[in-house]
């Protein structure tokens, strides 16, 4: 309860607003089939590029599809995919970073060599290269995002494990005959929950931006799938005359990334009781 109260206090006014924004956006995406006034893929050429009105709250796009309905549906794939990518990245990074940090030696040297290689590559360029090679689609985007993200997770986990393994209670467990697997599962990993949760939230926000970027470039989700990045790309030729076509999905991307990062910062302050609260993120 103490940490929960500290977390709520750490949120502050901006954090509370971010939490409300996140709940509203996730809730509206999940309830899109009931909230959307139109089928997001229904084409009405007679109503193409209709202005904002009581019938179409955000107007229509170049094919006469209701923009408000597409915005509601647009977050569904992005949010679910971001969660899946982040979970996969976290699991890979957790396993590799934990083993490297705990056992050290040649295993750590090999792991560090791979981490340095992946971190030395330009992230977005590498992601685009992988997605472009595999072809557009959800599967290729998933692989590209995981391959380009695991190294950061592994580095953070490795650093935390190296600090934990030097604690006196770990030495005590070894002294009484505790094996490595028991020590890792019951003592090492549980003591990394705080940093992992915070990094998880921060990573989700970045993944959502990456998904939107790949979809904007035509390497992610493909039309007619309603997606915020796809909507921004489709609206590019008309942004001077119909700016709201870009503003609506673009604002959704910015708001959900802002909300997740604010909550991640509050979690960091609530879960880290050390003086250098953000040192593990540096």
Structure description:
One of its GO terms (molecular function) is transferase activity. Helices cover 71% and strands 0% of the residues. It has one domain (2-281): MetI-like fold (Orthogonal Bundle). The relative contact order is 0.15. It has 282 residues and is an all-alpha fold. The chain starts with a helix and ends in an 11-residue tail after the last helix.
Topology:
Blueprint: H1 2-30, H2 32-35, H3 67-103, H4 105-120, H5 123-134, H6 138-147, H7 150-164, H8 168-175, H9 180-188, H10 193-216, H11 228-235, H12 244-271
Output the keywords:
GNAT family acetyltransferase; cell membrane; membrane; 12 helices; elongated; 71% helix; transport; MetI-like fold; disordered C terminus; 282 residues; BP-dependent_transpt_permease; mainly alpha
Distance between the termini: 29 Å
CATH classification class: Mainly Alpha
Number of domain modules: 1
- Reading the helices and strands in chain order gives HHHHHHHHHHHH
Q: Pick out the low-confidence regions.
A: 273-282
Give the name of the CATH architecture.
Orthogonal Bundle
How would you state the average pLDDT, rounded? 82
What's the story with the biggest beta sheet?
none
- Total count of helical runs of at least 4 residues: 12
Percent of residues in beta strands: under 5%
Radius of gyration: 22 Å
Helicity range: over 70%
Q: Judging from the principal axes of the Cα atoms, what is the shape?
A: elongated
